[in-house]
User: What shape does this take?
Amino acid sequence: MKILAINGSPKGERSNTWRLTSAFLEGIATQEESGLGQAPMIETLGVGRLDIKPCLGCFSCWSKTPGICCIHDDMQAVIEKILWADVVVWSFPLYYFGLPGPLKNLIDRQLPMSLPFMSSQAESGGHPSRYDMSGKRTVVISTCGFYTAKGNYSGVTDLFDRLYGRGGYTAIFCGQGELFRVKELSKRTDEYLSQVKKAGEEFAAGGITEDTRSELDRDLYPRDIFEAMADASWGIDGSGKKEDPGLVFTRQMAALYRRQAWPGQDVVLDMNYTDIGKTYRIVLGAAGSHVEEEPADGFAADFTTRINTPLSVWRSIASGQIAGDEALMEHLYSVEGNFDLMIHWDDFFGATRAGGAETARGVAEPKTNMLLLLIPWIVFWVAASIDSRWGSLTSVAACVLLPVLMHRAKATLYDRISALGVGACSIALLAGVSPILVIPASYFLFGLLWAVSCFTKVPLTAHYSKNSYGGDAALRNPIFMRTNRILTAAWGALYLVTPIWTYFIMQTDAASFVGAINSVLPAFMGDFTAWFQKWYPRHIARG
Assistant: This one.
């Protein structure tokens, strides 16, 4: 496949649109290399670097020198490249609802490619092509600065409909184009670029699918969020005066606030930029957010959460250059007040797409549930201590039926190991092994499971508690992982020593109550867990 990509942006390779075009070309190359075993031939032309003068309207290319323009510049070479290519990709930003001037010159100068005769096949008139253009494919890729592409490209589509016929080309029009240069928003823009690459793969395979087209047509951010960010990005106030960079950055951050995350009462976030000596307050409410500058005598009301950080550090975190959790561990910034905002930061300020669910096709990903781990053991400890035979059978039934009853829960390796452990203990009892030995051994096995997991990449508790802290993303958070490793070790220690007193209880009249007796300390440990998982991150955050 021979591809000609025409970059019509005056910014050249710094163009936001060119980022989309590059992703699209990468997709084509990926598909061609995997399907045909060879890379496509790709030629790029930067219009800004070409010498292409405006058309004179002299029609010499029709009458005096047919097919040859009287202007001697780079245009003849462009025409030769267009004729050479199997696919022509037009890449440009929207300028005043049309094409950038230099690119319009190039299109005007394609007149030598047409014959002067009137064509009855063209709606409202036209001219036939001088060359056989059948089999060639055309792609138009463009970004604009409005919140949406819808309703802003009629001038462009009218032109390309004329050139290639309605439906005769593939178009990717993207609003909010300036966001592709904002590093702090790379999570969302990279997501869109991955869809553009996918579109390139599908184009090379035959055509862009409806699902991918739907993703491409989706706005990057809702209108209110985008327009608030766009207004803040200019760095000037209502009177036209230049604003402090810290204030501009804070306004942009506040614009990302997701109102659906409002917890029922206003959240007051103070951003104390220690390197510039300024503090700005973001108030997050039901109706939206607003930013306040700290008065000379300080804010009248207290903050909910206060972040003490150099502006440079927070910019680096926002742009993804450094991870926020790692920066906190290294004490590059500190947090005062309510730490819940930090835990659920992505809920408040995370990148979200306009108008759609964040899971594919609106299907929620199954979550882990610790009940799958605990219930079989609890049933065994209670039931088997009362009656070893019926208790064992009940425990086996719990292992079998629980995953069926909780079919929406995502089973972990620890859930499966637990089921096998309970099953083994139940079989031992049914085989006649004394409960005095089996039940203490079961507690030891359970504790061993916790203790061993401390030395794995993901400790046991993290597999379940991650659901409250952003899902799998929490597993990349060093504070979260350290907290859960400590808690997992504490639970493992508890259950490793539990067999000691359990063995002696099993030899007394209280043997049938051993399950209830051994639930007392775990209840206190549960309270400790709830306290520690909040206290420890706050302790680290305070520096």
Notes: The longest strand covers residues 87-93. Residues 87 and 211 are 23 Å apart (CA to CA). The beta strands are 2-7, 41-46, 87-93, 137-143, 170-174, 267-273, 278-284, 289-293, 305-309, 334-337. The mean pLDDT is 88.
